Amino acid sequence: MSDDLEPIAPVDAVEMFHSAMEDEHSESTRRSEHYRLQSFIQFCDEEDIEDLNGLSGRDLYRFRTWRREGKGDGREPIKLVTLKSQLATLRRFLRFAGDIDAVDPNLYEQLTLPTMKNGEDVSDTTLKPERTIEILDYLESAQPASRDHVVLLLLWETGARSGAIRSLDLDDCDLDGTHPRFSGPAVHFVHRPETGTPLKNHESGTRWNRISQKTARFIEDYIEYHRDDVTDEYGRDPLLTTRYGRPVANTFRKTLYRVTRPCWRGEGCPHDRDIDSCEAVDIDHASKCPSSRSPHDVRSGRVTYYRREDVPRRIVQDRLNASEDILSRHYDRRSDREQAEQRSDFLPDL
To answer: Which chain regions cross the lipid bilayer (predicted)?
Structure first.
């Protein structure tokens, strides 16, 4: 251990790391990084590591093995992609810890990340476009202009992240199509970190997205008949509300988990479960249904739809505020056969 190091407890160093991220990272990113480090704090507690100054490469190896076996959260052995993301976060933390004289500045280099095979670091779940349309049709019939309906409409039409949908204020909605840049209704996603709604890509994520006339009408009906007339903690008027103000991020995940269960629409269970005893029927456990999907899965389904319809890649990138590489790796769910057939449409006959 170097004489230049200053004693600090693991939990205190993690809190400093979390605080230091405020200037450059969104709240959701900071929250994710903080969550991934909780298992490291638990490991330090179990190993009686009270001061980071003595942390060694051997400790990091033991942590990697400990975490790979699923210890730290009571689960089964974790997936390789999950292990990689947690170790990558720990590596970033160790670089920070080196900067504040908590560990050897080069210690982070001793934490190697697992090598992923092609596709192992990519989620294989999506909400297929045809399923999305079926759910929207059901909502239009059973719960028109409800918050659930409008949330899914906006996620699907704009392809935006749930954080961007959450950030919308009433003034961000041009439902009459009067904005001089557009010939129809649109919504404006704005990066506002100082009042609690940062966008994933910061200022570069600020953009207008067109919506259909039909969606604009449903939003108008939602505002008139279903929206709670409340402001958020910063005095802003959020478009989507709860009785207490602007919904938290988890509200959108729970909404998608709930409405994407087949039994929610009165369909039979495709997983041969007894609906009367299935725990996923409880809305608080809807995520345990194998058919339930997240807002991220709606976004990937939208990309797949655009690609099937041969929408130019530049247009998709701008509308969804994501790079070509990210769209291809994490959102496009066309099969290899679909992609091959679409390419053949642009190739001359041999």
So the answer is: none
| Residues in Cβ contact with 169 at an 8 Å cutoff, skipping those fewer than 6 apart | 236, 237, 238, 239
State how far the Cα of 209 lies from the Cα of 190, in Å rounded to an integer. Answer: 11
Three-state secondary structure call for residue 192: strand
Pick the closest to residue 292 from 263, 255, 261 (CA basis). Answer: 261
Q: At what angle do helices 80-99 and 57-68 cross, to 10 degrees?
A: 150
Give the max Cα distance, the chain.
72
* Number of other residues whose CB lies within 10 A of the CB of residue 96: 19
| DSSP 8-state assignment for residue 271 | T
Six-digit token string for 248? 């938290």
* DSSP letter string, 63-103: HHHHHHTTTTTT-SPPPHHHHHHHHHHHHHHHHHHHHTTSS
pTM (2 d.p.): 0.64
Helix (H) or strand (E) holding 142: helix 129-142
What does DSSP assign to residue 112? Answer: P
**80-99 and 27-36 helices, crossing angle to 10°:** 100
Instruction: Determine which helix (DSSP H) or strand (DSSP E) holds 290, and give its type and residue range.
Output: none
Q: Which domains does the chain show, CATH number per domain?
A: 10-110 (1.10.150.130), 129-296 (1.10.443)
Q: Report the C-alpha gap between 240 and 158 in whole angstroms.
A: 15
Tell me how long the chain is: 350
Task: Please give the structure tokens belonging to residue 18.
Answer: 């979390």
CA distances from 262 to 162, 221, 295, 304 (A): 22, 26, 17, 21
Q: What is the pLDDT of residues 165-181, one digit of tens each?
A: 999 999 999 999 887 77
Report the C-alpha gap between 249 and 229 in whole angstroms. Answer: 20
Tell me how far apart the alpha carbons of residues 184 and 38 are, in angstroms, rounded to a whole number: 47
271-319 pLDDT tens trace: 888 888 899 999 888 988 989 998 988 888 887 777 665 666 666 665 6
